[in-house]
Design a protein that fits this description.
Blueprint lengths: L2 H24 L5 H15 L15 H17 L2 H18 L6 H24 L2
Helix pairs in contact: 1-2, 1-3, 1-4, 2-3
């Protein structure tokens, strides 16, 4: 197996595990702390704003290549084995049937509201400083 094949397989697993987190967030047997981290990870993955902007050479892709897969891995490790197996099966079925990631309008609105609230809070904080 070549390096290219290994990278493609790794990327496919990361994509599948991202979808797995979406299903785990809806599962009532998922612990609250795994749901909270999962919501953060999925929101960050779908957010148009990165922690480190992509236009910064090399460092701009660190969050995409290291941070996001690391957070996905950590969240997956927090899931109970039976929930993980069930959600991975759902993710595999979804990806075979739909060929794309699930989407949520409520999720988009939530992410936009979160970034807007963060921006407004930062503006008020900067404005109140002497």
């Amino acid at each position: 197996m070549s390096i290219s094949d290994n990278l493609k397989a790794w990327a496919k697993r990361i994509k599948r595990d991202g979808v797995t987190l979406w299903f785990a967030g809806k599962n009532r047997r998922t612990p609250w702390y795994a749901k909270a981290l999962g919501v953060f990870v999925v929101a960050y993955a779908l957010s148009p704003i990165d922690l480190i902007p992509d236009f910064i050479p090399v460092l701009g892709y660190v969050d995409d290549v290291l941070l996001l897969p690391g957070l996905i891995w950590l969240t997956i490790r927090l899931l109970p084995p039976e929930v993980l197996a069930e959600c991975r099966a759902q993710a595999d079925e979804w990806m075979q049937a739909k060929g794309s990631k699930p989407s949520s309008r409520a999720g988009v609105v939530l992410i936009m509201a979160l970034w807007l609230a963060t921006g407004v809070a930062a503006w008020f904080w900067l404005k109140s400083r002497p």
